[in-house]
């Protein structure tokens, strides 16, 4: 007969080594196909290599797609992947640590997940959990959204005139008394109803998880790092809401991140630690001294968090106006164009003075 299964069986009988590669839905289909073929022919050895796989198998099947305890690398979840492991992630599945038993066959799965990619975390249980959290915290985000819409309408009446740093502070002084709570307005109405109770979430069956060994690529102070994890890693137990949760799913972003990870490991030099934002009050730019949200439609704390940027060279918080320049930082293994502040860009003609505390004078 025909079909993919018959073709794979013929290749297996002719001595070919079977590898299946896929991205997103293709990665999930590749894993399920490999498991079905192994069930059909237990002597088959199948290697699956996936990018951004969905949560497509139960925990029992997931355990069968990566090496048993005695053969796994002795590294706790979120510990760095060995240098060779990242190259294997780019070039193909690992042969040294495999779920395949010599002479008996098996399925070995190696997947790549970038940052906050939502697809590997998009199980029914995780989605219900985040929906419940959104409903439970509507008292926090609904007033902020109301204030933001009011600010957009106010600026639209002015024909969307460009904002300046000075007018931003005048507006803050006029609309508030210095108390961050004054940024919000009281909300009225019944609000949203709880979509799912705790019992609904616990009763959701089955719990689907991403399969195999997973190389998780993440950013730390602007540099790309990689860790070897599996479906039991707590980071896969919730959907990470971030601005990159969908962009991190693209193939181009994943391949670029893999190359950046290799470059960072070759340079072996860490970037300066990124500055933390103050817990309360306005977030100020380290270069001009004004709020990072001075050019935005709204000045509430949510807008400040969206407008917050870091200089990749010195790690300080800067506004959009003071971080418009882009350059590579090969000293840190960053070969793509990244954001740098005016201070670091001006000093880039000579020797970099990373982490220097001096700032340019405030703009008048």
From TrEMBL:
<keyword id="KW-0443">Lipid metabolism</keyword>
<keyword id="KW-1133">Transmembrane helix</keyword>
<dbReference type="InterPro" id="IPR011011">
    <property type="entry name" value="Znf_FYVE_PHD"/>
</dbReference>
<dbReference type="Pfam" id="PF01764">
    <property type="entry name" value="Lipase_3"/>
</dbReference>
<dbReference type="GO" id="GO:0016298">
    <property type="term" value="F:lipase activity"/>
</dbReference>
<keyword id="KW-1003">Cell membrane</keyword>
<protein>
    <recommendedName>
        <fullName>sn-1-specific diacylglycerol lipase</fullName>
        <ecNumber>3.1.1.116</ecNumber>
    </recommendedName>
</protein>
<keyword id="KW-0479">Metal-binding</keyword>
<dbReference type="InterPro" id="IPR017455">
    <property type="entry name" value="Znf_FYVE-rel"/>
</dbReference>
<keyword id="KW-0597">Phosphoprotein</keyword>
<dbReference type="Pfam" id="PF01363">
    <property type="entry name" value="FYVE"/>
</dbReference>
<dbReference type="InterPro" id="IPR002921">
    <property type="entry name" value="Fungal_lipase-type"/>
</dbReference>
<keyword id="KW-0106">Calcium</keyword>
<keyword id="KW-0378">Hydrolase</keyword>
<dbReference type="InterPro" id="IPR029058">
    <property type="entry name" value="AB_hydrolase_fold"/>
</dbReference>
<keyword id="KW-0812">Transmembrane</keyword>
<keyword id="KW-0862">Zinc</keyword>
<feature type="domain" description="FYVE-type">
    <location>
        <begin position="285"/>
        <end position="349"/>
    </location>
</feature>
<keyword id="KW-0442">Lipid degradation</keyword>
<dbReference type="InterPro" id="IPR000306">
    <property type="entry name" value="Znf_FYVE"/>
</dbReference>
<dbReference type="GO" id="GO:0005886">
    <property type="term" value="C:plasma membrane"/>
</dbReference>
<keyword id="KW-0863">Zinc-finger</keyword>
<keyword id="KW-0472">Membrane</keyword>
<dbReference type="InterPro" id="IPR013083">
    <property type="entry name" value="Znf_RING/FYVE/PHD"/>
</dbReference>
<dbReference type="GO" id="GO:0008270">
    <property type="term" value="F:zinc ion binding"/>
</dbReference>
<dbReference type="GO" id="GO:0016042">
    <property type="term" value="P:lipid catabolic process"/>
</dbReference>
<dbReference type="InterPro" id="IPR052214">
    <property type="entry name" value="DAG_Lipase-Related"/>
</dbReference>
